[in-house]
Amino acid sequence: MPTPTDARQGFHLDMPADSGNILAYGVSEMGDPSNNLEVEFTADAILLGDYPFLKQNRRRLLTAKSISEVLLDWAPPAVRTLDGEFIFISATQKDHLSKFAHRFNLPLTDRIDVWSLLLEPFLDTEFDEAHKKATLKLLADNGVPADEVEKIRALVNHRMFNLTFQTWEWVHYGLYDVLETMQPHTWTTGWTFDRFYAYAMELANRGTVSD
Q1: What is the pLDDT of residues 87-127, one digit of tens each?
Q2: Per-residue pLDDT reduced to its tens digit, 157-197
Q3: CA R_g for the chain
Q4: What is the secondary structure of 14-34 as a DSSP string?
Q5: How far is CA 203 from CA 74, 98, 117, 148, 158, in A?
Q6: Concatenated DSSP letters for 134-196?
Q7: How far from chain centre, in Å, is Cα 200?
Q8: How many helices (H) and strands (E) does the chain have?
């Protein structure tokens, strides 16, 4: 199977020879993400608690100066750090996040969640050919060509379909969902989660911001 390379970051979508036949290794307990995404808003920072995607689940302080933008309309809401990492905040704290952004004049951006487009085929929804072509064009416009789309979808295929089998989600998947479902089972793809996490963030950063 050919291995496309993203020359900008050196990411290689190396797929095991038998990746098309990888068995589904169980289903993770997805649940409501609100609890493990709750944060504490301090005078000038956001203090992460039991955040699921930090190494060793360590606490982490995000100062206002370290945040480049706030994405209130993502699901869940997120902040983007100056080094390009997207950190999620509980949807129950959306109003607090908005007030924090206004207090420090942080940009409220409308950035396309590239992963929401990549994950459309795994929703419990039928899309017609016109919609599929429009999605591929939008992905290409955001720096994700069709051959890379195919490889990414193959990489997450089993985990995402397992997630849909459990949740019957038909409205939306995004960056948070693919991170949560891939984290315990990335090894089934031949990747480490650290590698997948870095690649997922790099893809998310390709999303364009509306004026």
Answers
A1: 999 999 999 999 999 999 999 999 999 999 999 988 888 88
A2: 888 888 878 778 677 889 999 999 988 888 888 898 989 99
A3: 17
A4: ---TTGGGPPP--------TT
A5: 15, 25, 11, 11, 20
A6: HHHHHHHHTT--HHHHHHHHHHHHHHHHHHHHHH---S---HHHHHHHHTTTGGGGT--HHHH
A7: 6
A8: 6, 8
The DSSP H or E segment spanning 5 is: strand 5-6
Q: Could you read off the pLDDT of 23-44 as tens digits, one per residue? A: 222 223 334 455 689 999 999 9
- Angle (CA) 85-177-51 rounded to 5° is 55
Contact 88, 33 (CB under 8 A): yes
170 token code pair: 């038909």
Reported as a single tens digit per residue, the pLDDT across 75-98 is 999 999 999 999 999 999 999 999
Backbone phi, then psi, for 41, in 5-degree steps?
-90, 115
Asked whether 78 and 86 are in contact (CB, 8 A), the reply is yes
User: Would you state the structure tokens that stand for residue 18, as one six-digit string?
Assistant: 């038998």
Cis peptide before 16 (omega within 30 of 0): no
- Per-residue pLDDT tens over the stretch 191-209: 989 899 999 999 999 999 9
Give me 67's structure tokens.
């945040």
**What domains, with CATH codes, occur in the chain?**
35-103 (2.30.29.30), 111-204 (no CATH)
Q: How far apart are the first and last CA of the chain?
A: 40
